[in-house]
Amino acid sequence: MPHLTLASLTTLRLGGPVGEPLYVSDPDDWQELVHTVGRREEYSPLTLGHGSNIIASDTGHTGTVAVMNTRGITAKRQDDNTVLVTVLAGHPLIDLTAWAAAEHLSGIECLAGIPGTVGAAPVQNAGAYGQQVGDTLDHLTAWDWDMGRLRTLPAQACRLRHRDSRFKHDPGRWTILTVAFRLTRSAAAPISYQPLAEELGVQPGARPPVSEVTAAVLANRHRRGLLLDPHGPDARQAGSVFLNPLVTATQAARWSAAGCPVHTDSDGRLRASAGWLLEHVGYRPGQKITEGVRCSERRTLTLTAHNGATPTGFAQALTELSAQVEIATGIALQPEVSGDWLDLGLLSRCLVHHLHLGEPPCHM
Ligand SMILES: Cc1cc2nc3c(=O)[nH]c(=O)nc-3n(C[C@H](O)[C@H](O)[C@H](O)COP(=O)(O)OP(=O)(O)OC[C@H]3O[C@@H](n4cnc5c(N)ncnc54)[C@H](O)[C@@H]3O)c2cc1C
């Protein structure tokens, strides 16, 4: 019988063998999974949603893999006229945003079109078009594998920041089981992102109906190649591969004078556009980077896998891109995709050193 692989569980379709994954389809399956992990004397399983933000390793995963497949939404009106919407972890985020638009519930409309599950969304504080999970997250419930019990974490305890959370820094400790958002029955949240305002034909700060914003976000994502089309030329991808990097005020002034878009985070920190930096050093949509790995047809910041791609080759492509940007601009790019098995920071530093000094790269 052919081996099951992580490739079959991730959108990049890369990654080595795994045992039979355990699909968690009913919340009542959870205790059984906890017992199975205990019987196998493992610390925790590898928790997966739709695998849309992962570079899985060539060597695969020897332990238990839990695929979150639970679906369901419950809504409860609160005294302050908000609605507490509690969602099971395996529910597709795309379906949740469509449901919220139909219910005229505001707060997550700009997340429309982001692939993956609701349970994974707090892990990187998923966001787009000026909105992120942390804007409306009320609390979540998660299994704490350290303590061996169910915990309820208020939003503040999740330490959500730009595409970051406590869950990213403690791999394996948490499996998120439900996520509760506090939404409002009202027009959409004020539009803060200029390209979305242009798509809608409104001024920034305007508040069109939620369904109009959801439709505009989907149309804009479609045009920019930000929707996952499993049959298109960019089918094998994990979205943006780098975060927009933090820059100092001096770097921001210098690079914005050269044309680089610079955004201010909600906490006042400055971030340069990773896509612009890649194009500044010469990369273009469709360009081959390593064997089987190229920039997507419409976006330099998305890398796609093709025949001949391997996880190691994909990681080397990330390393090459970030090293070239660092050499030309002094700005270090951080990967956005998860890949706990590969020390991309180390690889990148080695390559920068190599390109500067002409020495052999570190052993990878
Ligand atoms: C075309 C495309 C566009 C994208 N656009 C965006 C975007 O605009 N904004 C954005 O933020 N992201 C974007 N992404 C990235 C991705 O969709 C999000 O990160 C999404 O939240 C990942 O969900 P998933 O279910 O696929 O997670 P997976 O890839 O399965 O997992 C991602 C990480 O979360 C962990 N995890 C998964 N589920 C759980 C759980 N229940 N409990 C604890 N840990 C868990 C995994 O172990 C892994 O570390 C895009 C990806 C693609 C392919």
Global outline: globular
Order of helices and strands: EEEHEEEEHEEEEEEHHEEHEEHEEEHH
Low-confidence stretches: 340-355, 357-364
C-alpha Rg (nearest Å): 21 Å
Beta-strand share of residues: 15-25%
The major sheet is characterized as: 6 strands, antiparallel
When the domains are counted, the total is 3
Helix segment count?
A: 8
Distance between the termini: 33 Å
What structural category arises from helix and sheet content? alpha+beta
Report the CATH architecture of the largest domain. Answer: 2-Layer Sandwich
The top level CATH class name of the largest domain: Alpha Beta
Give a quick precis of the structure.
The protein is an alpha+beta fold and 364 residues long. It has eight helices and 20 strands.
Task: Give an account of the 3D structure.
The two termini are 33 Å apart. This protein folds into three domains: 65 residues, Uridine Diphospho-n-acetylenolpyruvylglucosamine Reductase, domain 2; 151 residues, 2-Layer Sandwich (Uridine Diphospho-n-acetylenolpyruvylglucosamine Reductase, domain 3); 121 residues, Uridine Diphospho-n-acetylenolpyruvylglucosamine Reductase, domain 1 (Alpha-Beta Complex). With 364 residues, the protein is α+β, with helices and mostly antiparallel strands. Helix 3 packs across helix 4 and helix 7 crosses helix 8. The longest helix has 19 residues. The strands form six sheets. Strands 6, 7, 8, 11, 12 and 13 form a six-stranded antiparallel β-sheet that branches. It has a four-stranded antiparallel β-sheet with strand order 14-20-19-18, with helices on one face. It has a three-stranded parallel β-sheet with strand order 3-5-4, with helices on one face. A hairpin with a 2-residue loop joins strand 9 and strand 10. 25% of the residues lie in helices and 22% in strands. Bound molecules: flavin-adenine dinucleotide. Flavin-adenine dinucleotide binds next to strand 4, strand 9, strand 13 and strand 14.
